[in-house]
Amino acid sequence: MNKITTIQKLESLQGSTYVYAVIAMLVAFSISVIVAQMIAYQPRNDRSYVRRRLWSAIICVVFALGFWLYNQLVVIGTITKMPLQDKFAMTNLLCLVIIVIGYALLGLIGSLVFRKSKFATIFFKSANKKK
What we know:
Mean pLDDT: 91
Structural class: mainly alpha
Number of helices: 3
Low-confidence stretches: none
Order of helices and strands: HHH
Number of strands: 0
Largest sheet: none
Helix content: over 70%
Shape: elongated
Distance between the termini: 52 Å
């Protein structure tokens, strides 16, 4: 990775970091949908929605913190000037917020659109049980 020494390079890095944050959010959402579809309904006293919610939260936390830690430990080390590092630290926090809030909003919208799917049980308790 190249050393970041000027404001122009930092702005370019910030733009690409925002794009990577959105990509990370979409990948996390896709994995969450796949995991939700893999968890089967239980025959009696169905509480499989609890496992789906738990896995959804775990996936969100792992992706958000992983992205944030990577930027804190690797990317900030390539920025040579302290004021530029401080500016990128704010970008890193905004990316964390983008991932978490975007993931939640995308999940809520997906649950509303596909109301009778297993994924919808992450936000709503479904009456449609397939045994």
